[in-house]
Amino acid sequence: MDLDTNEAGEVAPNQYPDRTLLILPATPDGDVLAGVLAARLDGVLLGRVSDIGFDGDTLIATRPAYGGRIRLELRLAQGIAIATMNEPPAGDHVIRHAPLAVLAIDRVELSARNAALEGAHLVVSGGRGLDADGFAMLDGIARKLDGALGASLPAVDLGLAPVSRQIGQSGHFVTPRLYLAAGISGTPQHLAGIGAATRIIAINSDADAPIFRYAEVGAVADARQLLPELLRLIEG
Description:
The structure is a single chain. This protein is an alpha/beta fold. The chain is 20% helix and 27% strand. The chain contains five helices and eleven strands; from the N terminus they run βαββββββαβαβαββα. A hairpin with a 2-residue loop joins β3 and β4. α2 runs parallel beside α5. The longest helix is centred in the first third of the chain and has 13 residues. The protein is elongated. The N and C termini lie far apart (58 Å).
């Protein structure tokens, strides 16, 4: 792939091949940049893919879904596709661009309340089994442990958390080392937003809740009663 650019580093009109694939690192910054490029270039955002191949002239990308339990096969015959990948395939395609200006970047520490879900090493998430006080305690735990606050779709629908905190098939996809699920039943739609390598700790009053089938550690208890004790231990 060899694209001509102008002095500003912009790709000249009508310079796209019939099919163009841009692969970025599978990092939080790479995911954000991929989304921006897809919007700016009117391209197809493939997300984090695990494999790239071709069937004739058709591009085939494989992407894990539902926490790695199934694999989606995405096909593109023409147009621009943007993906992120841990280990991009080797190739001899080249992109030429003008040198980019050096931008000054100010880094600002975010509080746990505003900590981004993407890239967080710890996510504490609540479901409809909690109330407003329960989410306040989850927020306190996130602050103390330098984690991020998340929520299930039912909790968002109840107004317990903003939609920007939603995790699941229609929300964020997160890959923390540890995921605390409090009052979350564990529907496939929610689990689709959690990476397969993430370790799950579940708190639910229903011993038959599906979340326990995927959790490494589980507590059958009312999260609204257990979270205050957990927060006291952390603060102590």
